[in-house]
Specification:
The chain is 51% helix and 11% strand. By secondary structure, it is α+β, with helices and mostly antiparallel strands. Helix 4 packs across helix 10, helix 17 packs antiparallel against helix 19 and helix 18 crosses helix 19.
Amino acid sequence: MNFNHFTLRMMVELTLLMSLLVVKLPTTGAQSDTHDFTAIDTFVESSMKSSNLPGLELGIVHGDQVVHLQSFGIADVSGRPVTPQTPFMVASLTKSFTAVAIMQLVEAGQVELDAPVQRYLPWFRLVDAEASARITLRHLLNHTSGISRLTGNSILPTDDARVPGPEAYIRGLSSAKLSHPVGEVPEYSNANYAILGLIVESVTGISYEQYLKENIFTPLAMNNTFLSEQEARQHGMATGYQMRFDNPIPLDLPFPYAFEAAGGIISTAEDISHYLIPYLNQGKYGDKTLLSPADMAQLWEPPSYIPLDEHSNYALGWTTDVPYEVPGNDHSGSSGSFHSHMAVSPETGWGVVILTNADHLLLMSQPIELMTWKVMGLLAKQPVQDSLPFTRILFVATFLLVALQLLTLVRRVFRLRYWMRHVGSRPHGLRQVLFRIIIPVALNLLVAYIFLIGLPQFAGLSFTALLVYIPDWGLGFVLGGLLAGSWLVWGLAAIFVVCEFRTDHSATERILESSSQHAG
């Protein structure tokens, strides 16, 4: 009896002790009990497989805790499995790190957001000297400097990732023209953040890499995050894949050192999850402070100086006011063989990061972004609706237009042969020549312009760079250009045939007229 009483008492005390311990545990366990991460994993894995992606990492943050990490697929051609600690290139997620570095320097009194770039880089020049002097750090952060996306990508493609370096690249912008007046129109450009990275080095006297390691990576326990690809490969960096007609092809694309501060970070889902915590926890990670709460909030403030007829939702390294059912901010990253997306929703307290070791500069951004926000919707219990796949429509439309060019050209070739055999069927008169020959040829030359110049500029790439980074889409452009050239050849041949008819017709009339005169 006494033994049973003692046993019961011990059980009660142990139960109370366990209750106290559970209360003191990190919120990871509590969140795992109240959220169905299995359903989220199933959704992400299904989405990954439907997109034919080789590998993917997922990280989920709630408040001040990483509550879920998961990985899927393979890291390289050997079949090595991806883990949440496998380094992936995160590309333009780097821009938010650069923005944080600048804000840290603002807090330290070393730079001012509204100071001109030339205060920190006195040699900084574009073609327009007066405009160059008016570009501020805030303009660079908001992408309102007037430097175009195409100018920012002018060094792509590159065979040597180390050449040019950031300073040589920025000095090379002295021949660049602004595409917009300073501070008036937002246009995303890697050049803006490359300049900011060099300002970090100029002000601190240390490399951009060292600054991030000391002031961001180490305080946030980002132990598998690098700016050196060689170092990342020593720690198991995944192989990147380029998607071509939805098939992943392993491809090592050199990433230009000049873009280090715009897109050079290599990291993991675990480490980026650490990075998201200060955005949901008043700037703090554990006992470390990344930025003050006020400056953390400023990272999400889009420019107030943009005219009312221009909308910009790009703040300081983040896109704000995202068009989804869950309110929040996000950013994507695209290197040509890796793609990433991170999102935070301060209103709900959730943060999500998705990293993939595959990319397609045209087609990957929209589905990975949507996948990220659908995960956010599952967490916030607010379903996120599908969006119209505009980029996929554009891709398919390119090849439909090429097919239309080919089919109509084949038809016109047969028509030309018919004209050659049947003189009376040939176009006669300016109106018929205009509508049956000149306008069709002109339309195809317009298509060639769109393919070879217009769409590459829309993508922010030279035609050569487009063929390297989006070769399947570029194939459509090449075919369209060749067919347009064939249309031009057809047009010249058709005009020759028509002119031959008119010459023959005039000669026949002269012969008949001469015969009539002789008969008279």
